[in-house]
Amino acid sequence: MDEVALHATFQPATAGGIPLGPRELHVWAVSLHGDPEPYAALLSPSEVQRLGRFRFADHRRRYQIGHGALRAILGGYLGQDPASLEFVQGPRGKPYLSGQGLFFNLSHSGKLALIGVCATELGID
Fold it and tell me: What is residue 11's predicted lDDT score, i.e. its pLDDT?
């Protein structure tokens, strides 16, 4: 699959310093194409273990970039080291941040991921 072309209004940005209002939803578009190595240090041991179970390099790259970007974005909102974020699973397996009051959802298809962030539970699929 070719590189996904994003609309010109999608500007590269980081989440640090961007305020999230109580009734706002922020959606981040993340290209899953490129070098995954900058995200390697952000993943938890369980994410690294899961990464190792992917059979195809393309799937490993997309997982590493998507989950690393998720951590980087959430860390920016919370003012925390992305690698230190702790996730717990809800009753149906959905991940949540442990005790943070910030909710997120990650959805991906092909070479693009969408990450939604807000103050209430959400789904972006």
Answer: 57
